[in-house]
Amino acid sequence: MSPRRSVRRLVVAVLLGVLVGGGLLAVTPAGAEVSQAAATSWKKIWKKDLKPLAAKTFHTKKQSDARYQPKGSYETAGSGYTKSETYTKAEVDARLAPFANSVAAFAGGDQAVTLDPADKVVRSVSLVPTANGTVVASSSAYAWASGAGDGGARCSLTTGNAVDFEFLQYANIPAAQVSESEVISGTRGFPVTKGNLVTVNLVCDEFAGNMTVSDSALTAVFAPS
Q1: Mind listing the pLDDT tens digit for each residue in 136-158?
Q2: d(Cα 141, Cα 147) in Å, to the nearest integer?
Q3: Rounded to whole angstroms, how far apart are CA atoms 19 and 23?
Q4: Which of 122, 138, 149, 211 could form a disulfide with 153 if both were Cys (CB 3.0 to 4.6 A apart)?
Q5: Is 149:212 a contact under the CB 8 Å cutoff?
Q6: Count of C-beta atoms within a 10 Å radius of residue 130
């Protein structure tokens, strides 16, 4: 092989090496540079453009509490309730105190209730049972005719406001006994649940003549299951 050809081959090999090596050097750093530029760009976009918007959109817990639930009652938070329509815990406790943890209730005394055909609550008692069980209620009263002719009255113990005809207390006063009285009385049990207010009423109506109910008494006693 001639020296000139050998030199030529050597030059070609060196040029190929430079081209190949240069290509690799050109490709690899370029890819890395693009990746680094993209990453850097997104960090800048988040920091400069997105993060400030997110900070303005959301509130911290402290900011939310201060803005939507100011210290005080609900009416100051714009709930639509006025102070006169709301009660503090102390006010609620005071109103429920007579009924809380009750085991018995009583109502009675001097009384004269003129009846008419419409149902009328004559006496009422309330209590809050301390457990599930039964409230046993009993009542008594004088029923008398206050006008000419026969008189008739019906009463019942109920948790509603109407005479319950399945549990009647009945008084029938003949015309000859005007102003004379007849005792009516009854007892009834009501199933109850713990903590729920129960109100028992003595309800009466007049079905004949002119009737009056006097001096009624109503007792309710709670018995746990």
Answers
A1: 999 999 998 877 778 899 999 99
A2: 19
A3: 6
A4: 211
A5: no
A6: 14
d(CA 151, CA 107): 26
Q: How many residues does the chain have?
A: 225
Find out whether 205 and 156 touch, Cβ atoms under 8 Å: no
Amino acid at site 8:
R
The tokens for 180 are: 């004379």
Give CB contacts under 8 A, 24+ apart, made by 166-169: 169/139, 169/141
Q: For residues 122 and 114, give the distance between their C-alpha atoms in angstroms, rounded to a whole number.
A: 10
Residue 158 phi, psi (nearest 5): -160, 160
State pLDDT tens for residues 176-212. 676 778 999 999 999 999 989 999 999 999 998 889 9
Specify the pTM.
Answer: 0.57
